[in-house]
Design goal:
The chain is α/β, with parallel strands linked by helices and 213 residues long. The chain folds into two domains: 63 residues, Alpha-Beta Plaits; 129 residues, Rossmann fold (3-Layer(aba) Sandwich), CATH 3.40.50. Helices cover 26% and strands 27% of the residues. The protein is built from seven helices and eleven strands. The protein is globular.
Length: 213
């Protein structure tokens, strides 16, 4: 298949290894003092490694490449870190699955089947005390910060929505302007998926009050 994937210019690479550390999927490694794309199917094409390269040695290209294999990536992480990609038993916490970071969650998992999604900005968990019982309960929770992560969440969210039977999406954001990126990413992903589902946004004030519902 033809898709977007990273390209490493070995002549520009200074061998610092920053990109390999920044790659959450483990697609990049060091070989002979140079960064190399070790596995095409581990590269999600989101480019977390790009901002870390001090030499400008990493760019995107569109070419024939193996499809991104989220299951293989997560199996490797599970082996290295003993992370279990599964639905968790519900206790006082209403978090039903791990991982919950948008950047880390696989796009195809059983817990996405017939799921109601909560896409929450990181800060909402600290600003709104009742987040577990009011918004996380009964939903699959995905969290992130569009300002700090500096990635287009809509790409990952689109894959999740396209590849699973998602019933609804609730966006939980702060009132601050930077959280608008989270809301826009969800709306873009839902629109581009071509699917019809309930999509709502809830805004939390900096004092912890719900100001829009």
């Amino acid at each position: 298949m033809v898709r977007r994937i990273i390209k490493i210019d070995e002549e520009k690479c200074n061998g610092c290894g920053a990109c390999a550390k920044a790659c959450h999927e483990g697609a990049i490694g060091m070989d002979g003092g140079k960064a190399k794309l070790l596995r095409e199917d581990y590269c999600d094409g989101l480019g977390d490694c790009l901002p870390e390269c001090p030499c400008g040695a990493i760019t995107f290209e569109e070419r024939e490449a193996a499809a991104y294999d989220s299951a293989a990536v997560f199996a490797a992480k599970q082996k290295d870190c003993n992370i279990q990609p599964q639905e968790l038993p519900v206790s006082d916490s209403q978090l039903r699955q791990w991982p919950c970071q948008i950047k880390l969650v696989p796009v195809n998992m059983p817990y996405f089947n017939n799921a109601d999604l909560l896409v929450a900005a990181d800060c909402t968990a600290y600003a709104y005390a009742g987040i577990h019982n009011r918004y996380m309960k009964g939903r699959i929770t995905l969290i992130g910060c569009p300002k700090l992560d500096s990635v287009d969440y809509s790409i990952k969210l689109l894959e999740i929505i396209k590849n699973n039977n998602i019933k609804s999406v609730t966006v939980l954001r702060m009132e601050v302007p930077c959280c608008g990126g989270m809301e826009m990413a969800v709306k873009k992903a839902v629109q581009e998926s071509g699917k019809h589902m309930l999509c709502q946004t809830v805004t939390v004030a900096t004092d912890g009050k719900i100001i829009q519902n």
